[in-house]
Amino acid sequence: MLMAGSCAIMIVLGGYVRVTKSGLSIIKWDLSRIFPPRDDLEWNQEFETYKEHLQFKNDFPNMNLQEFKRIYLLEFYHRYYELLIFKDNLVKSLEVYF
Exposure string (b/e) for 48-75, b if CB count within 10 Å is 16 or more? Predict the structure, then answer.
């Protein structure tokens, strides 16, 4: 039951990410990254990388750093939640198997 609820939340969150076009805001996804950028230097580096992407040029050419932070964090937490669900499902599957 909990797994179904987690998947439902993920579908809603994923739909929102899709509608807001936040999904490509993280150009380089480091699987070991636990936290989003912490200071202005890291945020500016991420934003400069994003400015090179076609999505920025086509959909958000007038975006500022604050707007970028909003879509970046939305995508970051979406991916992080997805990773947590995957790990939870993997553990539960292994418990059933073994």
Answer: eebeeeebbeeebeebeeeebbebbebb
Place of tokens 């809603």: 12
Half-sphere exposure of 86 (CA within 13 A, CB side): 6
Please tell me whether the overall predicted TM-score, pTM, comes out greater than 0.70 for this model. Answer: yes
Rg of the chain over all Cα atoms, to the nearest angstrom: 16
Q: pLDDT grade, residue 74 (50/70/90)?
A: very high
Structure tokens at 4: 């179904």
Q: Which pLDDT score, from 0 to 100, does residue 5 have?
A: 84
